[in-house]
Specification:
Elements (H helix, E strand, L loop, with lengths): L1 E7 L2 H6 L1 H10 L2 E6 L3 E5 L17 E3 L3 E5 L5 H7 L12 H16 L3 E5 L17 H17 L5 E4 L28 H6 L4 H15 L4 H7 L3 H8 L4 H28 L5 E4 L7 H4 L3 H5 L4 E2 L2 E2 L9 H15 L5 H12 L19 H16 L11 E2 L13 H13 L4 E4 L7 H11 L20
Parallel strand pairs: 1-2, 1-12, 2-6, 6-7, 7-8, 8-9, 10-11, 11-12
Antiparallel strand pairs: 3-5, 4-5
């Protein structure tokens, strides 16, 4: 087994000591890097922020909560003109020394034979249009232009990875304003795209509203009667609603079209071949988010499903099931935990061994049976979509605060990797190097290369920080 190391935003840490870092990583089995967005990012600490932050770079802009970013390259106006969109302005302070150091680092990685994939290559795109982002041509071209310019500027890169877009998957009310809230997915801007693809927008909205109402008035008798009844039983459990099934199909068709347009657009406007991948959620949740592994594998070189199995935080497997169960019981006080888990199984096919009729069971859901059954199933379902297992490269996040979730121990990581390898997995993408702990690196390096020994490591050890 081998791995790609995700660098994410922490470019300066890697640039400052890249030769020693690459030595250590390659000894441990790393044969590729996932790097980006291609920006120099630092953070302005906020009160109570437990994450490692750095000094602000002069001339940068505040983004999101407390981050600032300066692009590591200038836009190429010719590409934007060719695609009929407006280029973003170059940064006020280009930071030439950091840029030179970044290019030196990437070239060193390339010279070592490391595979390099740019992450968020479309980050910092110029202004798009007013339509829905999955349909609007101007928005698509702005994103394409930024990706193409990034891949042109960094010829060392073998390709790019897209993390999204995707449709939502959470039903918990506190996700109301979050990108992942399922019931936010049909704003009026979707109507033209539905018409393009032959779907009845108003009917899908009505089905969405009926499902939300149904989730507030679930009948335990109907759950128990239809539980584990296969496709037909699940259809009855969810109200036997044909328009709901159309909405599910629309989600997949619209997202697949968007990824295909990006893939074809990059190929048409870039003067060299590149490999591309996208990062769906794990196999159980992927269809609800709009990902069809088999369809995507026809034109994407890599699929990077989220092997995020932690509790709480965001994007975690157990955490998402927990929130479904918790929310359905809040909406339906007469339901038991077991009833809600039957609904989850009907929708996603998920069974959590040892989680039965008590919310406390979720706290010990990462048991041996979970790895043997759930991790095996999620891995095999992903691998079944491709002709070469090297094309499945799951994101893997464990450690102290995986995606702000509950810690996963080095023992958990070993069980995850052992089980996934037994199911046929050959590589994964560790997310991300700034959070890598010594225990994780011992397990990873033992599995993928030469086991790391801190006594002989030439003073290098994993950062073990909390870096967003």
């Amino acid at each position: 087994m081998n791995l790609w190391m995700d660098i994410l935003r922490d470019l300066p840490h890697v640039m400052d000591n890249h030769e020693r870092l690459f030595d250590a990583w390659q000894e441990g089995g790393v044969d590729g890097l996932v790097i980006g967005p291609m920006e120099f990012v630092s953070a302005d600490p906020m009160p109570g922020d437990r994450f490692v932050t750095g000094n602000l770079i002069p001339g940068t802009q505040l983004i999101d909560r407390n981050f600032v970013a300066t692009a590591a390259y200038d836009p190429n106006p010719t590409v934007y003109e060719r695609l009929g969109v407006e280029a973003p302005p170059p940064p006020d302070e280009p930071l030439p020394e950091l840029r030179a150091q970044l290019e030196k680092t990437l070239q060193a990685a390339k010279d070592r034979g490391l595979h390099i994939m740019l992450m968020y290559a479309g980050s910092g795109a110029g202004p798009g249009g007013d339509g829905h982002h999955l349909r609007d041509e101007r928005s698509l071209n702005a994103h394409l232009a930024r990706m193409i310019v990034a891949l042109e500027h960094f010829p060392m890169a073998d390709g790019a990875i897209m993390d999204g877009p995707e449709w939502g998957y959470e039903i918990a009310p506190h996700h109301m304003d979050h990108r992942s809230y399922f019931f936010n997915d049909l704003p009026e801007s979707v109507a033209p795209m539905a018409r393009d693809l032959g779907y009845d927008y108003a009917a899908m909205v009505a089905a969405k509203d009926r499902l939300l109402a149904l989730f507030h008035q679930l009948d335990p008798r109907r759950i128990r009667s239809n539980a584990r009844g296969g496709l037909v039983g699940a259809h009855r459990l969810l109200g036997a609603d044909a328009d709901l099934m159309s909405w599910f199909s629309f989600r997949t068709e619209s997202l697949t079209r968007n990824f295909r347009q990006v893939r074809e657009g990059v190929a048409a406007h870039l003067d060299r071949p590149v490999r591309m991948g996208c990062g769906p959620r794990s196999a159980a949740f992927a269809p609800l988010c709009g990902y069809d592994f088999v369809d995507l594998a026809e034109f994407m070189d890599f699929l990077l499903p989220k092997h995020y199995f932690f509790h709480r935080g965001f994007d975690g497997f157990i955490g998402t099931v927990y929130r479904y169960s918790q929310t359905l019981m809040e909406w339906n006080p007469g339901l038991t935990v077991a009833d809600t888990l039957e609904v989850v199984q009907a929708i996603f096919g998920i069974v959590l061994p040892g989680v039965d009729n008590d919310m406390l069971d979720f706290e010990s859901a990462l048991n041996t049976e979970f790895f043997e059954q759930v991790v095996t199933q999620e891995t095999k379902r992903a691998l079944a979509a491709v002709d070469d297992p090297e094309r499945i490269v799951p994101w893997l996040d464990t450690g102290r605060f995986p995606h702000d979730g509950d810690p996963m121990s080095s023992r958990d990581l070993k069980m995850l990797l052992d089980t996934a390898e037994a199911a046929g997995l050959r590589r994964f993408n560790y997310h991300h190097q700034g959070n890598l702990s010594p225990g994780e690196w011992v397990v990873i390096s033992d599995k993928c290369g030469t086991r790391w020994d801190p006594r002989t490591s030439d003073d290098w050890e994993p950062p073990d920080q909390l870096v967003l």
